[in-house]
Specification:
Layout lengths: L2 H8 L3 H8 L2 E6 L2 E13 L2 E11 L13 E5 L5 E3 L4 E6 L7 E8 L24 E6 L9 E10 L6 E3 L11 E3 L5 E12 L5 E10 L1 H9 L7 E2 L1
Antiparallel strand pairs: 1-2, 1-4, 2-3, 2-14, 3-7, 4-5, 6-7, 8-9, 8-11, 9-10, 10-13, 11-12, 12-13
Length: about 230
């Protein structure tokens, strides 16, 4: 069967979705549930502890302290569970609050991912093109704990912001999930869904808000690079 026939049979996004699912994680933080994705990992000369850095929407972590015992992180296939009882978990916000970007650093005794499974993220000097097609993955509450894929196009940019408007939906639980192109390059994270409110009783379909990964790329390159972590 040719590649073109494969695309018709299983869809052109199937390969990218398979790649992204390997770096996709479900986050349970207190009463909040959301999604996250691996950005980079590292270790001291290939020995424990092993570091795993995840990106998510910061509001998924809102109100939760890294000292709490109610943080749990699960791989998309359910084979990996991380929590702050068994691992060192550190939470922090990246950039101003309006960019809604949070980072979760986990130190484990065993590696969670291989470097070859990490995906490229959009470099900070590039921007998504209007009309470009993107997909995103996460764990919507209506399908919890199963991951789902969504798809849309870049509609435009928010005024006075680096965030982008995407013609697509973001259901509760998908916040923090990665948005990516067909090649598996991660462009941003799901931040919010902005409904089109006609009046107090009428709500029409709206737009998803995507925060680009350029902040994460810059931070990983210029901060973590100095600390011995291998950028993905």
């Amino acid at each position: 069967m040719t590649d073109q026939q494969d695309d018709i049979r299983i869809g052109p996004w199937a390969t990218a979705a398979s790649q992204v699912s390997k770096v996709l994680f479900r986050v349970e933080a207190g009463d909040n549930g959301g999604s996250a994705f691996a950005v980079t990992l590292g270790s001291a000369g290939g020995s424990p502890p092993f570091g795993l850095l995840l990106a998510t929407a910061f509001h998924v972590l809102d109100g939760v302290s890294q000292d709490d015992d109610d943080i749990a992180i699960f791989s998309a296939d359910g084979s990996v569970e991380l929590n702050n009882s068994d691992s060192d978990v550190f939470l922090f916000r990246l950039g101003p609050a309006k960019y809604d970007t949070g980072l979760i650093m986990v130190k484990t005794s065993d590696p969670v991912l291989g470097e070859d499974e990490l995906l490229p993220i959009l470099q900070h000097e590039f921007v998504p093109a209007q009309g470009g097609e993107l997909a995103w993955m996460g764990f919507p509450s209506i399908a919890w704990p199963n991951p789902c894929l969504f798809k849309g196009v870049v509609s435009g940019k928010m005024p006075d912001s680096e965030a982008y408007l995407i013609d697509g939906v973001a259901i509760n639980g998908v916040s923090g999930g990665p948005a990516f192109n067909r090649e598996g390059t991660i462009f941003g994270l799901v931040s919010a869904y902005i409904p089109n409110r006609v009046d107090a009783l009428t709500t029409l379909p709206g737009l998803m808000l995507m925060v680009p990964t350029m902040f994460i790329d810059y931070w990983v390159e210029n901060v973590l690079g100095a600390k011995g972590f291998a950028a993905g």
